[in-house]
Design a protein that fits this description.
Number of strands of chain A: 13
CATH architecture of the largest domain in chain A: 2-Layer Sandwich
Largest interface: A-B, 65 and 65 residues
Largest sheet of chain A: 5 strands, mixed
CATH topology of the largest domain in chain A: Nucleotidyltransferase, domain 5
Number of domains of chain A: 3
Helix content of chain A: 40-55%
Strand content of chain A: 15-25%
Shape of chain A: globular
CATH superfamily of the largest domain in chain A: ATPase, nucleotide binding domain
Number of helices of chain A: 12
Strand order of the largest sheet of chain A: 6-5-4-7-8
Oligomer: homodimer
CATH class of the largest domain in chain A: Alpha Beta
Radius of gyration of chain A: 23 Å
Order of helices and strands of chain A: HEHHEEEEEHEHEHEEEHHHEHHEH
DNA sequence: GCTATTTGGTAAGGTGACCTAACTAGAACG
DNA sequence: CGTTCTAGTTAGGTCACCTTACCAAATAGC
């Protein structure tokens, strides 16, 4: 057995708490930090010195303050603290955000998709987006890259997992391998729905939380006890494989109903949305039944505090009320069912959060 | 914001690691502990001194050792380290184990059930069992009581939750209240299936793990990332409320098929078992379909490494193979499906583990 | 303008939990 | 009987935190 806790974890949690506090408040003095976090003034001074030496924070000029006594030194995010890159790879192409360590997006980069199934074009687009991002870098080192993939991802190997009938077969590439010669920063890879859940959870703040994505595919992102649930094989949330009304899977039944996917590589979201817009009662009934099955299953298994519906179909306004009613009829103590608020940007927001968290953690543990 | 990590957490994790190591090895010297845990010899000596002063450990006489040099002082669990009480309350009555802090069961106490729905008799039996346990206490203080209830339990208030159609309506009591005047030790309460999962997880060792109970009711215990999932309202694992093949719940459909429960307070387990023993094809088909629906749902939602089937019906040998086949047909990367090994004793084992964990943690944080 | 007050920050010294290195204690081997 | 091996202690150091006391600088009010 190894040493359980090195003493340095104390310093690291202190540094992290103070860094987050500075970023959250934009500009603070050490005295304010001490008051806000409960650390003593000497401890705050030491920590801020470490963070400043490491380039993560920087002192600003004196600040107009309405207060009475001596004006303190204000600190803010260092100009060369570095940046992270969040990349989204899906059927709509490749999109990336370059963000500073406060999470502020500085540059956007996009490439259109290749043809369906064209893996080569996708790889080229991914490399082109990252090359473009590296060509106009924000100040400081690139500290992490997080890639959102519209396919399941293995939790430890970070390999993309091939499932039969995936709506995104061209996305069966390993972003870490594709980008290995372009970036030296660590490349994190996760599923787009997981990352969307991460982003939406940040806004909702619930300790147990499920995000149901309904679009070209069906997906679920789960947060329990402040941790993302990825599953033993990276297949947590693959709710297309939920048992349906018959002996088969939910996805197969949706496909048989003319929705969703089974062996069709992709699903016509615009057609589904049009049917909903036109108040097609059959389309509504099928979708409500499917979403209710998903929400009911998640509720019975993990009993989350909040379930958010996301994705182009999931956020359609006509869905929410009937799903709520159906779930309430099924479950004795149903979760709050709401709409996601971040829309199609949720995966990029989540990837940014993932990259940031990793980048800041790594930068702090690497401090003297 | 409060202090993130007090320095004492280091000491507490050290003490805990060493205590667990001593208990796991029965008898050890400090030198062996240092080698096994990676702590330095002075640190081990200090920690062992704290644990010995607190009564949790005690030095034994010299030990026959095949080794060459000086014989060290061996340490073992202190004779008056105290004990914990695990209590199970269900339709079969009230059962309790008094165990020492190594988890060794010292005494057993049992009371038969009252009539179905007879809450008064159940409360009397619970008090009688605890009184009996307190009358023949093992040495040392009673440090914790854990109660396994055959009903859902709220994760924070520890109140038992009333669900319509519960097979155990008389069990709608608060053990903490019932025992308040009998014991001063903390009374922990949890659901029997959760505790069974805790116990079985201990034997299996998987990081993500689901325990499916099939007996008088349907239940699920979930372990993800080394943590028990209780749900926002204590209703995680209430898989009777899973969507069934039709618009209703799985439990309602089982009831309609002559199995399970809906508004009948209890289910005739012996009749179901007899049907399975007699190779009744209809009974087998209905049960396999239901269990497959449960395992498939859990797999699609959280993707556990292992799923154990437990409970009198769940452990029936004819179920395993067809369920495995059906799950494999449904899921792209199914969990290992096995039988639980602890049988009806699983909840008591789990309650013991819960009580032990709490007791040792509390004893160590209370140390000088 | 001068002083009191208020606020920011540093210096000095202490504590707790860990470490390494060097020692003493005691048993067995040859 | 000395050598060698193992157990455990002592001494001294480091690190991350703390409190207390002080100095520094700015405004408020006279």
């Amino acid at each position: 057995m190894e040493r359980a806790l090195p003493q340095s974890v104390l310093r690291e949690t202190t540094d992290r708490a103070l860094f987050d506090e500075v970023v959250g408040r934009e500009r603070v003095t050490r005295a304010e930090l001490a008051a806000a976090t409960g650390f003593s003034k000497p401890t705050v001074s030491e920590s801020v010195r470490r963070l400043t030496d490491g380039g993560l924070l920087a002192a600003t000029g004196p600040q107009e303050t309405g207060r009475r006594g001596r004006v303190g030194t204000f600190y803010e995010l260092g100009a060369t603290a570095g940046w992270v890159l969040a990349v989204e790879v899906d059927q709509s192409g490749v999109h990336a955000w370059a963000a500073d360590l406060a999470g502020r997006v500085r540059h956007r980069h996009d490439r259109p998709p290749g043809g369906a199934g064209d893996t080569r074009a996708l790889v080229d687009a991914l490399r082109a987006v990252v090359t473009s991002a590296l060509a106009t870098p924000p100040a400081g080192p690139l500290r992490a890259v997080a890639v959102s993939m519209a396919n399941p991802v293995h939790p430890t190997t970070h390999e993309v997992i091939a499932l039969s009938g995936t709506p995104f077969p061209e996305g069966l590439v390993s972003p870490a391998d594709v980008l290995a010669d372009l970036v030296t920063a660590p490349v994190l890879v996760d599923n787009d729905v997981n990352l969307a859940a991460l982003a939406e959870q940040g806004s909702v703040g619930a300790a147990s939380f499920a995000y149901v994505y309904v679009g070209a595919g069906l997906g679920l992102g789960l947060y329990l006890g402040d941790r993302l649930v990825r599953g033993a094989h990276g297949l947590a949330g693959e709710i297309g494989y939920l048992p349906g009304a018959g002996p088969g899977t939910l996805a197969a039944e949706l496909a048989a109903d003319g929705f969703g996917r089974s062996d069709a590589p992709s699903n016509d979201v615009t057609a589904v949305l049009k049917a909903l817009d036109d108040d097609d009662p059959r389309a509504l009934a099928v979708l409500v039944a499917a979403v209710t099955r998903v929400v009911g299953s998640v509720t019975a298994v993990v009993d989350p505090e909040v379930v958010l519906l996301g994705g182009p179909v999931g956020t359609h306004p006509t869905l929410l009320a009937p799903v709520r009613d159906a779930v309430a009829a099924l479950s004795p103590s149903p979760a709050r069912v709401e709409h996601g608020t971040l829309g199609v940007l949720a995966p990029l927001h989540g990837a940014t959060r993932l990259a940031l968290d990793h980048a800041v953690r790594a930068a702090i543990t690497g401090l003297p």
